[in-house]
Amino acid sequence: MQRRALMAALAAATAARPGFAQGLPAEIRMIVPFAAGGATDLLARRLQPLLEARGHKLVVENLVGGGSMVGMSRLAQSRADGRTLGMGSSGLIGQIVANEIPLRFEQFTPLVRVAVDPLVIVTGAASRFAGFEQVMAAMREGSGPSMGAAGPRGTIGHLRLAGLAEQVGGQFVYVGYPGASRVATELMGGHLDLAIVKPNDVFGQIRAGALRVLAVVEEERVRQMPQVPTVVEFGLRAHPFGRMTQMTFVNAPAGLPPGQRDALITLLGEAVLSSEYQAKALEDGYIADALAGDALDAAIAETANAIRTAQQKVSQ
Hints:
The protein is α/β, with parallel strands linked by helices. It folds into 2 domains: 2-117 and 246-314, Bordetella uptake gene, domain 1 (D-Maltodextrin-Binding Protein, domain 2), CATH 3.40.190; 120-234, D-Maltodextrin-Binding Protein, domain 2, CATH 3.40.190. The protein is built from 11 helices and 10 strands. Strand 1 (27-32), helix 2 (39-52) and strand 2 (57-62) form a beta-alpha-beta unit. Helix 1 packs antiparallel against helix 9 and helix 6 crosses helix 11 (293-314). The radius of gyration is 19 Å and the shape is globular.
């Protein structure tokens, strides 16, 4: 499935190649709405040498605040001339759906998806939870275990956990954190029972043995952790509210001329599908499929609809 997605993305990028006749600026600014050193920031910085090799200097600017609102607001207000791009995410989709921020989908032009992250259930090395069966049992007992994620209630981590709890017929105490690093710290310190995270955020702690992965909250096992079962193997659905994809994609402001849009899709698509970028994706546990065009628009809409459905059910 992943191979087919990569081939389709490459074909889309090749089809867009005539857009280069429109020309692109030699220097492109990439707004990252999160702190330097985080997973989204690293994705942007991995594009820097790849774009430079293709004749374009990529300047990464971190504009932190409001769960991506500060940076994405700046992007929405920028001129649609190909000089300013920004890293969008599923978190941004959720904020827009929930009307938590004064931004709308129509203010952006999605270009290329740079990462799809599976979500996994992790616990600390000294945790009492040895397997996912014990997690399900704990959910059915009393108020349930403490379970955390990066983001407040109503964001994807919380909603995916709520979907599991509903199917199990149990409960959990949700704890939201400002970022994945804090989640990992709380797990390792024994202050949090469990968490749902992106492998890309905590692979260092997993490899070091400080965190243990109990289940993959997707239909397929993660290729870097083939021994870890999926929740489907325990009789649960991974996406009970509809497919809610944890993804990162490059946005431009709305109104980008079609020629520049095609040129940027080609430029970014070739970088994402390059052997260098694919090697990092394999190492860190995410999928880099370079989805673009109508297919990316559809994926964003699908995730937005699933988040909307989940938020409505969870708030009832």
